[in-house]
Design brief:
- By secondary structure, this protein is an alpha/beta fold.
- 32% of the residues lie in helices and 22% in strands.
- The strands form 2 sheets. It has a 6-stranded parallel sheet with strand order 8-7-6-9-10-11, with helices on both faces. It has a 5-stranded antiparallel sheet with strand order 3-2-1-5-4.
- The longest helix has 20 residues.
- The mean pLDDT is 90.
């Protein structure tokens, strides 16, 4: 498997990895500059030449995989018989610098309801390096033509058409997924809020709507859903940056996206 395919596999599994690249070579070395090795939690793909260089790089990459916010770093290796590494001697006669680039697990976001605001929100979020799940019970909201505005997305887009029970998608989402509920139907929103509170492992939960809508939902979640106040408080509403009061879909979407990005930053700090 090529390192490119392996990166895609780690992304699909939502596992962190470190891409190790031979950055510079002086004199004789096992591999030329540009050789790559991808290091996952338990697997590796590719090679930067074996021996002490590769073993030390793997050790360090595995350490970086366990760091919350790893940064890229360089490692220098002298390849001569006077330098003994933790995994032996390589006496090719040259010197090598390798670059370690962490590939952390990206954030995941699920937007339930791809109407006017949902589509504008998808357009903003699609410009970011994340996994974006778009869920709607209406097939006309998810046509290839309508979602064509996302064709150049940086994000990986996952489309879910769920004509009957969109809340079933919640159980299929990756751990830590941030959920935004903004469907066309208040009954659907209510069912999603209830199901989201019953789904383990989700990230933040946001609901679009007015104070009056939330007051009704809160009562139902407590009386019919049996949720206590602490659980119900997990749902954030209204969503978006306070003080941005515009009603246009693009304005709401920008406000919601900015608030969500702020949530990402807070979780990393």
């Amino acid at each position: 498997m090529t390192w490119v395919a392996a990166v895609a596999r780690l992304r699909e599994r939502r596992e962190p990895g470190v891409l190790v690249t031979v950055a510079t070579v002086r004199g004789h070395a096992p591999r030329r500059a540009g050789a790559k090795l991808l290091v996952g939690k338990t697997e590796t793909w590719g090679s930067i030449g074996g021996g002490n260089i590769e073993a030390v790089a793997i050790d360090r990459a595995r350490e970086l995989n366990g760091v919350a916010r790893p940064e890229p770093e360089l490692m220098d290796f002298a390849l001569n018989d006077k330098v003994t590494g933790p995994h032996g001697v390589q006496c090719c006669g040259g010197a090598v610098t390798v670059l370690l680039e962490p590939l952390p697990v990206v954030e995941a976001v699920a937007v339930f309801g791809v109407g006017h605001v949902g589509l504008e929100l998808a357009r903003v979020l699609a410009r970011h390096h994340l996994d974006l799940h778009l869920v709607d019970s209406r097939p006309d909201m998810l046509t290839a033509e309508r979602l064509g505005v996302l064709a150049d997305a940086v994000a990986q887009i996952h489309v879910h058409h769920t004509p009957l029970l969109p809340e079933e998608v919640l159980g299929e989402l990756p751990p830590g997924t941030h959920v935004l509920i903004m469907t066309h139907d208040h009954a659907e929103d209510a069912a999603l809020c209830d199901a989201a509170l019953r789904t383990d492992g989700l990230g933040s939960i946001g609901l679009i709507g007015s104070a009056a809508k939330w007051a009704r939902f809160r009562r139902r979640l407590a009386t019919e859903g049996g949720h206590d106040s602490a659980a119900i408080d997990r749902i954030k509403t209204p969503i978006g940056i306070p003080g941005i009061t515009g009603k246009e879909p693009a304005t709401i979407a920008l406000s919601v996206a900015a608030d969500l990005l702020r949530t990402f930053e807070s979780a990393r700090s």
